[in-house]
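[Q] Does anyone have a clean structure-token version of this?
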Amino acid sequence: MNYFALFLFAFTTVSVTAMPPTVRHYKSSREAFNGPDRTITWRPWHQSPDGHFRFRTGDRYLGGQVWEHYLGFELQQTSIKAIKLSMIRLANEDIREGVVIRPGLRYAIVKVTNDTMTAHKGTWSWTAQQIQ
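[A] Here you go.
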């Protein structure tokens, strides 16, 4: 009887660990999952023309044709300047508040939630100004 219990325990352990993890297979690399995303899909960093900060964009699908669009800024570690980012826009949507990045507060993320754009539509724009 003890051998049967040991065999049953070993068999159930092997069968559980032998199951492959759940992997989603898409027909193409551009095919989107129909449900909401749990993470933000970030694009690569880009350097600002003056070299004091870098930025990147990201998107997250919330479901029901509603998207969150993100714009992230990072001040360079060697920079000692404060930079005010204002007049931030995504396509035809204005972001009311501006952000300031400076030593000690090197990161800023702006978010827009809407249902009129997909992940690949709309261009971000902003004005960067060095402050004292």
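[Q] Thanks! Anything notable?
[A] Residues 2-17 form the longest helix (16 residues).
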